[in-house]
Amino acid sequence: MSLRAFILANKLRFAGLIAAALIHVGTAIFLASSVSRLLDVAIGRTPRQDYAALDPGVSATFALGLLFVTTAFQRRLTDGLGLAFVHDLRIRLFRHILRAAPGPASEGKRANLLLPFVGDLTAIRLWVGDGVARLMLGCAVTVLLIGYIAIDHPLLASLLAATIAILAACAWSIHGPLDRVTRDVRRKRGGLSSFVAGRLEAATTIVAMGRSGSEATKLERRSRDLISVSMKRAWLVGALRGLSQSSAAIMLVLMLTVMGSGVGRGEVTPGEVMGLVSLAGVMGHALQDMGRSFELFVPGHVAFQRIDRLLALAPRVKRRKRRARESDTGLILSKIATAAMAEPYDLFAKPGEIILLDGPSGSGKSALMATLGGIQAPSRGEVWINGAELSAMRDTERQRQIGIASHAVPLLPGSVGMNLKYRHPSASNEEIDRLIGEMGMGGMNLANERRLNEPRNALSSSEYAAILVLRAMLGSPPLLLLDSVDGSLPDSVAKRLAAKLSTYPGVVVITAQRHALRQIATHNWRIENGGVRASTRERLHSVPGPDDKKTNAR
């Protein structure tokens, strides 16, 4: 959602912001009037407007309390707007990155994807909450107070408006250099973080090669470069803050200079001057808010550009308009091609058939598996499962239709049970226990409540592969994809898996190393030299189940 769309969608909140500004201005004027009467009464002067019904000390105290309440309410409202905007943007960005991120990210890529959710969204929250909202408040308060002063003192109001315009022009002149140096700081900070992350990951190599000193020197050079550009930015930000924070003093001096002669001539009471001084304090605070918005605009603008680039990433699989071929069952690949294929191919598999996806390393087996699993889009062509096109399926439908076990589709931090049910949440514990028993995995520690903070470190390779397989098979999806997960399974489990697959009701596509799994294939799709060669094959022999083994033993 753009900032303009957000404002339109939150008209009531922003109307409340303007209403708060009006109340704040009214309170400031009431306070100025109370201070003016309080001083005039204290020195024995008769105020021009005598509100005998209300003691000036009481009215001043009441105005101060009301000013405190309106200021606190404004802060709550502005922060709420910033948080609401970032919340909507965070959810939208998360959904988009999930669909656009190119598969499992490396540590470096993961860090780059995390940065927007930490640094960039924080900068945007500050810009919307402390920037846009406070800019609106500051402008409204300043304009209204100058309008009020112009009623009795038009010359002073004109001078104040001209001074504010000059201060704003000076602040805007800093914008260009501040934008450039902010980008330099972000670029050098990102480079420094990447350098440290890469070197820490290769710490063993650095120590073994005796390069600790030279790497520390490189880090020192990068750190000094970052300090240099950061100091440039500090000077510019300091100048911007100096302009905003000195604005109250500038207006105070201007008021005293202009109104001092009026006091001498008896045209203005000291109380009126003191009242104007209190208004100068309120305006000075409003101008500081406006200066703060200038300061936050640059990092917010840069962060917006980064977020926009991420949101412009094309999704891996573009959802198409739903079409149906209800008469078709099984798996159909219509004029399909991936990056490794020189020309498109038509492939077909019926329910109950087991496809062995074969070919030399780097031939494109994993790419085709990812295409069948809906993880990435094919270069061209369509994938149909039981009469429904894959790219037109909703998430819940694809969840029911496809089970994929692959190390490219890793487990999540959580519990074993959460991971097992992640694709098929309605699976019962009894169904899980039954499948574990059928697969001969009862000896593994696969208790549902077992916690996995870091699954790859908390599980053995066989346990990890077993959970991948179980997660894919729960619910017997019409298309089952097993991508090189058999290598870590114990021999007994691999044989039971083969026996289970040989009677599987849906289409099974496997890339396997174990003979027990390769021999049950009914068809072979071999990818080689940019082409696919499909062939039918007889099973070498039936794979005996566990009960058959017992019978033979007798």
Describe the structure in brief.
One of its GO terms (cellular component) is plasma membrane. It is found in: Cell membrane. The chain is built from 18 helices and twelve strands.
Describe the 3D structure.
GO terms for molecular function: ABC-type transporter activity; ATP binding; ATP hydrolysis activity; ATPase-coupled lipid transmembrane transporter activity. InterPro entries: AAA+_ATPase, ABC1_TM_dom, ABC1_TM_sf, ABC_transporter-like_ATP-bd, P-loop_NTPase, Type_1_exporter. Keywords: ATP-binding, Membrane, Nucleotide-binding, Transmembrane, Transmembrane helix. Residues 324-554 form the ABC transporter domain. There is one protein chain. The protein is of the alpha/beta class and 554 residues long. It folds into 2 domains: 3-311, ABC transporter transmembrane region fold; 331-553, P-loop containing nucleotide triphosphate hydrolases (Rossmann fold), CATH 3.40.50.300. It contains 18 helices and 12 strands. The chain has a 6-stranded mixed beta sheet, sandwiched between helices. A 4-stranded antiparallel beta sheet has the order 2-1-4-5, with helices on one face. A hairpin with a 2-residue loop joins strand 11 (523-528) and strand 12 (531-536). Helix 4 (107-152) runs antiparallel to helix 5 and helix 5 runs antiparallel to helix 8. The termini are far apart.
Taking strands numbered 1, 2, ... along the chain, how are they ordered across the largest sheet?
6-9-10-3-11-12
Percent of sequence in beta strands: 5-15%
What string gives the helices and strands in order?
HHHHHHHHHEEEHEEHEEHHEHHEHEHEEH
- Please report the number of helical segments: 18
CATH topology of the largest domain: ABC transporter transmembrane region fold
The profile of the biggest β sheet is: 6 strands, mixed
Shape category:
elongated
Mean pLDDT: 81
Q: So, CATH architecture of the largest domain?
A: Up-down Bundle
Number of DSSP-assigned strands = 12
